[in-house]
Recover the amino acids of this structure.
């Protein structure tokens, strides 16, 4: 075999090694897709539900019937502690805040001293503090947020803090962020014109390195909407949008679509006449999220329309049965005929690009396989020809 042949074989071998190494390198390492609503919705479905309104909200009659039933039950079973929570929350949902607080105070009279070893009683104390604190802050808000009654907010702050101390991670940490909003209100009372004081962004946690934990904040704030009473809160949706912007989605963290849709929700609320708790907060960047893109705005309108239709269908189903005297608290067949519409499939605007990339990847892999085959076969052919020529000369 000549030196020329040996050099060719060495070069081809080196090329083969390089191609094999490159083909085994993770294909996704150099691909950075634009964040899409579909991806984000899969990761944060509770945020999408909160923003679009596709979560369960019951008609007033549902709570009125519950109140009537519980009042009757408590006359004969005044020590049924869970019933006090049911009636207090029902009153709160109807805006009857004084009654809600009154029922919680009646429950407290039946509670024994909090003991760490008594898990059942710990749960009752947790619910007492969480419910009375929530009812108290709702009463202050519904009363117009009178700064002369800010002591009521401080009292609610103390009660929510006690609930968190008993059960820190309840409802995905919702109470923790409820407490942050209350503390924001208290801080804003003293420093009303300070941007730092009035920015809802202050509810976001920071890790040990000082980085914002937007994911935990987004989950907690979404819970305030779906499990609480923040569906029409400009401030909560402003904070939710900022939280979503501080999540590492894998590419442009400040351009994710859910945050854009939260901005669209804030705009919708403002168009309906809703305002921040404090006029000064309306000028703060954190309470005025970046405007939604045209794409996000269009998707928001579409999803809000679908959510409203879904909610109407659910309410119509409930009202047909509630007006007939049926209630899910006492009728186990109440939901038997309810067929919930599936949530809409969120389109992926990058689907075609991804498909093209997959096709390109398949073609590249096929080309690599062809080259590798040639690299393996070519030296064998050369060696065979050299051996054959050498054998012919010897003859």
């Amino acid at each position: 075999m000549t030196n020329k042949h040996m050099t060719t074989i060495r070069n081809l071998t080196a090329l083969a090694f390089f191609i094999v190494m490159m083909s085994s390198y993770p294909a996704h390492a150099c691909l950075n897709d634009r964040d899409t609503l579909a991806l984000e919705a899969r990761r944060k479905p509770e945020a999408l539900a909160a923003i679009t309104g596709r979560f369960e909200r019951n008609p007033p009659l549902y709570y009125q019937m519950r109140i009537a039933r519980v009042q009757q039950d408590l006359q004969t079973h005044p020590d049924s502690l869970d019933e006090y929570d049911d009636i207090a929350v029902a009153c709160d949902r109807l805006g009857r805040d004084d009654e809600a607080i009154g029922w919680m105070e009646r429950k407290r009279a039946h509670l024994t001293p909090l003991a760490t070893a008594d898990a059942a009683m710990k749960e009752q104390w947790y619910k007492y503090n969480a419910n009375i604190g929530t009812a108290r802050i709702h009463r202050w808000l519904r009363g117009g947020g009178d700064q002369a009654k800010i002591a009521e907010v401080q009292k609610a702050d103390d009660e929510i803090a006690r609930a968190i101390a008993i059960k820190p991670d309840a409802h995905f940490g919702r109470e923790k962020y409820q407490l942050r909003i209350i503390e924001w209100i208290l801080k804003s009372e003293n420093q009303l014109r300070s941007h730092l004081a009035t920015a809802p962004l202050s509810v976001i946690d920071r890790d040990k390195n000082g980085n914002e934990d937007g994911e935990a904040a987004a989950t907690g704030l979404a819970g305030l909407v779906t499990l609480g009473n923040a569906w029409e809160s400009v401030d909560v949706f402003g904070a939710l949008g900022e939280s979503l912007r501080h999540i590492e989605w894998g590419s442009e963290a400040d351009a994710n679509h859910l945050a854009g849709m939260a901005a669209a929700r804030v705009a919708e609320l403002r168009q309906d006449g809703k305002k921040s708790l404090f006029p000064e907060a309306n000028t703060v960047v954190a309470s005025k999220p970046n405007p939604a893109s045209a794409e996000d705005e269009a998707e928001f309108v579409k999803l809000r329309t679908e959510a409203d239709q879904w909610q109407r269908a659910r309410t119509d189903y409930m009202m047909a049965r509630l007006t007939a005297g049926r209630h899910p608290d006492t009728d186990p067949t109440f939901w038997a005929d309810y067929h919930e519409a599936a949530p809409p499939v969120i389109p992926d605007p990058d689907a075609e690009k991804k498909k093209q990339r997959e096709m390109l990847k398949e073609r590249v892999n096929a080309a690599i396989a062809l080259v590798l085959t040639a690299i393996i076969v070519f030296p064998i052919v050369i060696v065979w020809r050299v051996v054959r020529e050498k054998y012919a000369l010897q003859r």
